[in-house]
Amino acid sequence: MPRAVLDANVYVSAIIQPAGTPGRLIERFLREASFEVVLSPAIVDEVLRALGYPKVRKLLRGADAQLWFEDIVVLADVVADTQLHGVCQDPDDDKYVAAALEGREISAAGFTRMAFATRTCMSSRFRAFRAVG
């Protein structure tokens, strides 16, 4: 089964706009189990922090974002945090590459311009990836 690491923005967008591409992607994961999500504690922390931002909470219209995300975490493969530095142009994205490596996965979605040391770029923001494309 394909495995994927998703950027925190994918989760935030999914709960705000369930009918959008990120929302449909998460719904596919939750309902069809057509792919596996790989998370790390660092990614979980970032998503929970983002879901708690006042601007995001305003857009949730009463939805319990933490409970929603906890359902995803329970179904995901949560791998150990591995420290990588200088792999991505944006150092905050290193945690996603680390999770992909720890989860033995190379598919990723939600990155604006993630570049690996080999200068390979991943998909643009919210574009579907091979696991669901």
List the helices and strands and how they pair.
Blueprint: E1 3-6, H1 8-16, H2 21-32, E2 36-39, H3 41-51, H4 54-59, H5 65-75, E3 77-78, H6 94-102, E4 108-109
Parallel strand pairs: 1-2, 1-4, 2-3
Structural class: alpha/beta
Helix content: 40-55%
What order do the strands of the largest sheet run in, or round the barrel if closed? 3-2-1-4
- List segments where confidence is low: pLDDT < 50 over at least 5 consecutive residues: 110-133
Work out the radius of gyration. Answer: 14 Å
Q: What is the distance, rounded to the nearest whole angstrom, between the alpha carbons of the first and last residues? A: 14 Å
User: Number of DSSP strands?
Assistant: 4
Q: Counting H and I runs of at least 4 residues, what is the number of helices? A: 6
What is the makeup of the main sheet? 4 strands, parallel
Oligomer description: single chain
Hey, roughly how much beta strand do the residues contain? 5-15%
CATH class division: Alpha Beta
Please tell me the total number of domains. Answer: 1
Overall mean pLDDT: 79
CATH architecture: 3-Layer(aba) Sandwich
SSE string: EHHEHHHEHE
Which key terms come to mind for this protein?
133 residues; alpha/beta; 6 helices; disordered C terminus
Structure description:
By secondary structure, the protein is of the alpha/beta class. It is built from six helices and four strands. The protein has helices at 8-16, 21-32, 41-51, 54-59, 65-75, 94-102, and strands at 3-6, 36-39, 77-78, 108-109. The chain has a four-stranded parallel sheet with strand order 3-2-1-4, with helices on both faces. Helix 1 (8-16) crosses helix 2 and helix 3 runs antiparallel to helix 5 (65-75). The protein is globular. The two termini are 14 Å apart.
